Automatic annotation (TrEMBL):
This is ATP-dependent Clp protease ATP-binding subunit ClpA. Residues 1-148 form the Clp R domain. Keywords: ATP-binding, Chaperone, Hydrolase, Nucleotide-binding, Protease, Repeat. GO terms for cellular component: cytoplasm. GO terms for molecular function: ATP binding; ATP hydrolysis activity; peptidase activity. InterPro entries: AAA+_ATPase, ATPase_AAA_core, Clp_ATPase_C, Clp_N_dom_sf, Clp_R_N, ClpA, ClpA/B, ClpA/B_CS1.
Length: 833
């Protein structure tokens, strides 16, 4: 239930007292209105609606004294409110309650009086041309009937005038509000803000500031428009100009100027009815024009186009500003981005000609370093720490290199600010008092979503061991790995074009020899993301639009493309285009600008940076020719035929932009043995969760090497063979058989049995089988069988032939154990190097 304000309670008591003084038996609406003349809320509304309070008071006093004389009683009882009096109070309470407010004021009671149309109180108000709409319009929106007296704040008597300033007697005539209320309500005084030390200094930008001052000094069209990308410092120029004004660093023509920043949000807030917004804006413009040497700054000025426009109406804020902008009566500084300038401003040529465009370009790295050196003391004071000069330099250089979707100096300022903020999360005893390069690198890695070791300027350890790390996990492709790592080291050394990707490589060779695996392991070694696109999905012409987005006018044109969005989210990655020869030729044309200039523009005009991307394309071109035997006795395979196939398939301009065409050859038998060991290691890691260890005999290993590799298909059949001969039978044993509760198993060759049930001495085998140690064994799982770094440290297999196992010797090791028939609790997989 809403409560009465203190001033309204006093007015109600005063109305009853007026009736009691005249010995009236009832208190009427006229008594109430006479009391409301002295109520601060009701009086403010009536003054704004052009009501002469002294005339109203005389009329009410004359009416009460003459016309209500028949209400005189004996004076023994207090005056009682009439039914109309009570209805007005109830109506005011209901109105306040429905509007969600908690307090009933005299202004609400004044509005409720208009519902009593037959009363003399309503007649006296209407006699002075006051309507209910006028009162509601002023209470809700601060719009007065008297020109120039619009309220900028909600009606609440104490805000406009104190009771001490307004006598309770006859001199309560209407007075205009004090000058500058609209500016105070809807604008921010940047000079005052700068005087209070709330604006950082403007460093550099001498050409832009000088050009801005020059435009402001014109007689007509003295309106500079700052246009630039987000984050380059457009708003800082306007705020810096206000700071220079109070520090007397501007020409004498602007020495007394005051910069007001227009808040469009506040200007639009609460404008429910047509004309509210226009009234506020006109009042602001009038006060700006009346203010000596005033300059209005509108940030994001494109928002004024269409602001306040009603449906079907052409009158918006921009059209209201045009006359004043052209005449020179209103000096206005605007700021907007290139995108909004093209989208909104260029379409309104009448508005464009009233502004003088000033381009604000992104500062260079040296200029940004100077800007941050000037701002450094302010961040040091706020975060209570110090930044080294190297840290400031690293923040600029690393943000320019790794944060590609934003502009300097904004992103560099964010880096040093966030680095200082990160120390607030650390207990005070462990906080660093000086921020160095290492902390800056950590922040950059977090903001750019890349591993910290990639950001570090000292990543020599990773690059130094890159070749060996790749050889350890990609077998038999020494020449290809060395060519790949050499090109990457060349790029990291800074000896290649900085506007191109780190590398553009074409991996050519037969299937199943490690082309895709090399790309995966390269991404893992460098600690970056790998984005893989299967080019078999882009065989049709129209599917190319999936990579860069649909053209405008088509469904989904505003949703971006898979390739551009992927690189935008992971600017440092390995981009794998698998089986590139299957893609439509139009895709090659898209890749030309990527490989040459390191940039790609989607259909929305957004430019994506590829300068920190390693592009790897795989191809099976020429693999069928390589598989054919060569004529003569000197070569077993045709060499050079894959190059001829690549030349036939790819255009010269495409091949010319590749950094290298790296050929992958067939895998020799000793390399296939390493592939077998790798698959067994993976199986061993999977079985460790079931508390099962597995061992592979030398004979079984050789059998897998012979049967799991095909020159035409590479090592891919190996996985299928292991799944068929080992994993599938082993699944039954793990789920229902002897390995249900864990144990050890050895994979051996299974000899075909003769008719008498004995193993055949023939060399032929029927497949792989399992042997289990005698008795239940619960082995301990190995510590980390998946660690790739430990693979080369596993015990080497014996070069001497194995001794024939005794009957029942199912648990003997295939490695170098000294006990011929002993059972090993934790068997190891023998690996050949």
């Amino acid at each position: 239930m809403p409560s009465f304000s203190r001033s309204l309670e006093q007015a109600l008591h005063r109305a009853l007292a007026l009736a009691g003084e005249r010995r009236h038996e009832y208190a009427t609406l006229e008594h109430l209105l006479l009391a409301l003349v002295d109520d601060q809320d009701a009086a403010a509304v009536m003054r704004a609606c052009n009501v002469e309070l002294d005339v109203l008071r005389r009329n009410l006093v004359e009416y009460v004294d003459t016309e209500l004389s028949n209400l005189t009683g004996d004076g023994r009882q207090d005056a009682k409110p009439t039914a109309g009096f009570q209805r007005v109070i109830q109506r005011a309470v209901i109105h306040v309650q429905s509007s969600g407010r908690e307090e009933v004021t005299g202004a609400n009671v004044l509005v409720a009086i208009f519902a009593e149309r037959e009363s003399h109180a309503a007649y006296f108000l209407q006699e002075q041309d006051m309507t209910r709409y006028d009162a509601v319009n002023y209470i809700s929106h601060g719009i007065a009937k008297r020109p120039g007296t619009s309220e900028s704040k909600p009606v609440r008597g104490a805000e406009e005038e104190s009771a001490a300033e307004r006598p309770s007697g006859e001199d309560g005539e209407a007075r205009p509000k004090k000058k500058g209320d609209a500016l105070e309500a809807y604008c921010v005084n940047l000079n005052k803000k700068a005087r209070d030390g709330k604006i950082d200094p403007l460093i550099g930008r001498h050409a832009e500031v000088e050009r801005t001052i020059q435009v402001l000094c014109r007689r007509q069209k003295n309106n500079p428009l700052l246009v630039g990308d987000p984050g380059v410092g457009k708003t800082a120029i306007a705020e810096g100009l206000a700071r220079k004004i109070i520090q007397h660093e501007v020409p004498e023509v602007l020495a007394d100027a005051t910069v007001f920043s227009l808040d469009m949000g506040t200007l639009l807030a609460g404008t429910r009815y047509r004309g509210d917004f226009e009234e506020r804006l006109k009042q602001v413009m009038k006060e700006i024009e009346a203010h000596p040497n005033a300059i209005m700054f509108i940030d994001e000025i494109h928002t004024v186009i269409g602001a306040g426009a009603t449906s079907g109406g052409a009158m918006d804020a921009s059209n209201l500003l045009k006359p004043a902008l052209a005449s020179g009566a209103l000096r206005c500084i605007g700021s907007t981005t290139y995108k909004e300038y093209r989208q909104y401003f260029e379409k309104d040529r009448a508005l464009v000609r009233r502004f003088q465009k000033i381009d604000v370009n992104e500062p260079s790295i040296p200029d940004t370093i100077e800007i941050l050196k000037g701002l450094k003391p302010y961040f040091e004071e706020f975060h209570k720490l110090k930044y080294t000069t190297d840290a400031v330099k690293a923040a600029v250089e690393l943000s320019a290199r790794y944060i590609n979707d934003r502009k300097l100096p904004d992103k560099a300022i964010d880096v040093i600010d966030e680095t200082g903020a990160s120390q607030m999360l650390v207990p005070e005893a462990r906080r660093k008092r000086t921020i160095g390069v290492k902390e800056i690198e950590t922040t950059i890695a977090t903001m750019a979503r890349i591993p910290p070791k990639t950001v570090s300027k000292d990543d020599a350890v990773v690059l130094k061991n890159l070749t060996e790390n790749l050889k350890r996990v990609v077998y038999g492709q020494t020449n290809a790995i060395e060519a790949l790592t050499s090109a990457i080291k060349l790029a990291r050394a800074g000896l290649r074009d900085p506007d191109k990707p780190i590398g553009s490589y074409l991996f050519a060779g037969p299937t199943g020899v490690g082309k895709t695996e090399a790309a995966k392991q390269l991404a893992a070694s460098l600690g970056v993301e790998m984005l893989r696109f299967d080019m078999s999905e882009y065989m049709e012409r129209h599917t190319v639009s999936r990579l860069i987005g649909a053209p405008p006018g088509y469904v989904g044109f505003d949703q971006g493309g898979l390739l551009t969005d992927g690189i935008d989210q992971h600017p440092h990655c390995v981009l794998l285009l698998d089986e590139i020869e299957k893609a439509h030729p139009d895709l090659f044309n898209i890749l030309l600008q990527v490989m040459d200039h390191g940039k790609l523009t989607d259909h929305n005009g957004k430019q994506v940076d590829f300068r920190n991307v390693i592009i790897i394309m795989t191809s099976n071109a020429g693999a069928s020719d390589l598989a054919k035997s060569a004529y003569g006795f000197t070569q077993s395979k045709r060499s050079g035929d894959d190059v001829e196939a690549i030349n036939r398939l790819f255009a010269p301009e495409f091949r010319n932009r590749l950094d290298a065409i790296i050929s992958f050859g067939h895998l020799p038998k000793e390399v296939v043995a390493k592939v077998v060991d790798k698959f067994v290691l993976q199986l061993e890691a999977q079985l460790a969760d079931r508390n099962v260890t597995i061992e592979l005999s030398d004979e079984a290993r050789e059998w897998l090497v012979e049967n799991g590799y095909d020159d035409a298909m590479g090592a891919r059949p190996m996985a299928r063979l292991i799944q068929t001969t080992i994993k599938t039978p082993l699944a039954d044993e793990v789920l229902f058989g002897r390995l249900k509760d864990g144990g050890a198993v050895k994979v051996v060759l299974k000899k075909p049995e003769t008719e008498d049930g004995k193993a055949s001495d023939a060399k032929s085998v029927s497949g792989l089988g399992f042997e289990f140690p005698d008795g239940p064994v619960t082995p301990k799982p190995e510590k980390d069988v998946t660690n790739a770094a430990k693979r080369h440290k596993r015990p080497k297999a014996r070069a001497t032939p194995r001794k024939k196992a005794n009957k029942g010797d199912g648990g003997s090791s295939g490695g170098g154990s000294s006990g011929g028939g002993s059972v090993r609790t934790v068997p190891k997989v023998p690996l050949k190097v």
